Amino acid sequence: MENWKSHLTTSSSSSSANPTNGPEEWMILFSGGNKSCYGRCAGVETAWNESAALLAADPSAPKLAYVNCDTTPVMCTTWAAAVPTIWWVQLPIVGEGQSKPATTIRILGLNTTTATAGDIVKIHREKTYEKRPVYEGALHPFDGWVAKAGLSEPLGYVLYAFANIPSWAFMIVISMGSRYIIVGGGQADVNRAQRTAPLGGAPPANEPAAR
């Protein structure tokens, strides 16, 4: 879960790690297998691998990262990452004595049947990511209030646990809860009737009331 922090960081040894050069750019593919993508992401992953070979020859290309939501489900849940999507992340490079600017994230969806390596390369070369809005949600992994409060990891495990509770378990809880409410309400009516009944009690149904 926390492993991504050691990988998704600016490289102090690279020539791009200079505040004057702007942020360091990353392109991250969120994909999966049978569990998270229902076996439909194979074509996207093939296109991703082909695009990586094309971008390797481009010195201005972003750094690439791949996240498999089948093997790292908690991270995908914490980031609220759908599959397959590409996250274009611009990590700010902080100079000495400077405050850390916001990390810019834009999310691009991929078509599981038509996505090609050319489509992925265009994200960088034609800057098609700029057409997408900047993500500023509460679950922003760097600047969201959840991350700033240090709750990303525990929240990720909680959300993942809830997502894996079988539907029949929820039905049992709902059934037991509704039965408790009905029984509890009926008992309250009985208690109320007993408190308001005459001291002598009501006569049996087959006997006339005393005059």
Q: Can you put this structure into words, describing what you see?
A:
The protein is α+β, with helices and mostly antiparallel strands and 211 residues long. It has seven helices and four strands. The chain has helices spanning 4-7, 42-55, 73-79, 117-125, 145-148, 152-163, 167-196, and strands at 24-31, 63-68, 85-91, 104-109. Helix 3 packs across helix 6. The radius of gyration is 29 Å and the shape is globular.
Write a concise keyword list for the protein shown above.
single chain, 211 residues, alpha+beta, four-stranded mixed sheet, 4 strands, 38% helix, 13% strand
Which strand order do you get reading across the main beta sheet? 2-1-3-4
How would you sum up the global shape?
globular
Low-confidence stretches: none
* Number of E strands: 4
Order of helices and strands: HEHEHEEHHHH
Which structural class should the secondary elements be placed in? alpha+beta
The amount of beta strand, in percent, is: 5-15%
Largest sheet features? 4 strands, mixed
Q: Could you tell me the mean pLDDT?
A: 80
| Rg calculated over all Cα atoms | 29 Å
Instruction: Measure the end-to-end span.
Output: 81 Å
Count of helix runs: 7
Oligomer: single chain
Assign a percent range to the helix content. 25-40%
